[in-house]
């Protein structure tokens, strides 16, 4: 039986608000983030889920509990953490100013300093952008495309094992990770990087087939549009 997968991006955090790089580093949800998530939770409150998961970062864990507490039609046990669904890792840039970070990445990619990440990726392509991020990182710890692709495969493999026999599950993950999944698994992306960044509290819906094949069928559904979803 195929499993329907709801991927929810966590709510706005302090680092989001302060324009800081946030990958594996963590910061608390803001009041706005919590209020936005309440909209998501309310609009999913009548959707039955067999199980809910989150990445192992606190902003995702806090988000999934808001989803669980608001749901009125599901009998959910303990939330399991799936570390493979963590955000992309930005190495030494974690916690740094985003604009200054992208300038360094652009230069490492052979471009002039640029703060608009979309412009950088449009010129370099997503794979070279990841390589430039790793190159610009003084300790070269940031995930490149190969490392991230391997982790995405691990995430889908783990989900395949976890979701056997389940009809619908919810996973709270992160913006860049969800976007990278969509680049790989959403047919409307066609392997391109030119897709919107998922909003806080948005839902991306995928189907996990019995043979382990994963596809994304709806991307970045905003929280206030879920009522018609």
Biggest sheet features = 6 strands, mixed
Strand % is: 5-15%
Compute the CA-based radius of gyration: 17 Å
Q: Whole-Å distance between the termini?
A: 22 Å
Measured as a percent range, the helix fraction is 25-40%
Low-confidence runs (pLDDT<50, min 5 residues)?
none
How are the strands ordered across the major sheet?
A: 3-2-4-1-5-6
Helix/strand/pairing category: alpha/beta
Number of strands: 6
The 3D shape can be described as globular
Average pLDDT works out at 95
Number of separate helices:
8
Element order: H for helix, E for strand: EHHEHEHHHHEHEE
Can you put this structure into words, describing what you see?
The longest helix is centred in the C-terminal third of the chain and has 18 residues, at 145-162. The radius of gyration is 17 Å and the shape is globular. Helix 3 (58-70) links the parallel strand 2 (51-54) and strand 3 (80-81). 39% of the residues lie in helices and 14% in strands. The protein has a six-stranded mixed sheet with strand order 3-2-4-1-5-6. Helix 2 packs across helix 3. The protein has eight helices and six strands. The mean pLDDT is 95. The chain has helices at residues 14-17, 31-43, 58-70, 98-108, 117-124, 126-136, 145-162, 175-185; strands at residues 3-9, 51-54, 80-81, 168-173, 203-208, 214-221. With 229 residues, it is of the alpha/beta class.
């Amino acid at each position: 039986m195929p499993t329907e997968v709801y991927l929810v991006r966590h709510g706005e955090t302090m680092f989001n608000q302060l324009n800081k790089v946030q990958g594996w580093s963590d910061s608390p949800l803001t009041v706005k983030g919590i209020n936005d998530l309440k909209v998501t939770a309310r609009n999913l409150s009548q959707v039955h889920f067999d199980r809910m998961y989150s990445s192992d970062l606190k902003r995702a864990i806090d988000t999934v509990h808001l989803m669980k507490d608001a749901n009125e039609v599901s009998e959910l046990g303990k939330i399991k953490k799936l570390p493979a669904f963590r955000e992309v890792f930005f190495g030494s840039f974690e916690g740094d100013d985003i604009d200054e970070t992208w300038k360094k990445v652009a230069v490492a990619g052979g471009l002039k300093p640029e703060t608009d990440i979309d412009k950088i990726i449009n010129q370099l392509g997503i794979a070279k952008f990841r390589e430039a991020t790793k190159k610009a990182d003084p300790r070269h710890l940031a995930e490149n495309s190969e490392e991230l692709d391997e982790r995405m495969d691990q995430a889908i493999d783990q989900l395949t094992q976890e979701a056997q026999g389940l009809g619908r599950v919810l996973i709270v993950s992160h913006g860049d990770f969800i976007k990278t999944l969509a680049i790989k698994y959403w047919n409307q992306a066609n392997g391109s990087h030119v897709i919107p960044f998922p909003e806080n509290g948005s839902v991306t819906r995928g189907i996990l087939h019995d043979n382990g094949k994963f596809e994304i069928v709806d991307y970045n559904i905003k929280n206030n549009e879920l009522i018609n979803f």
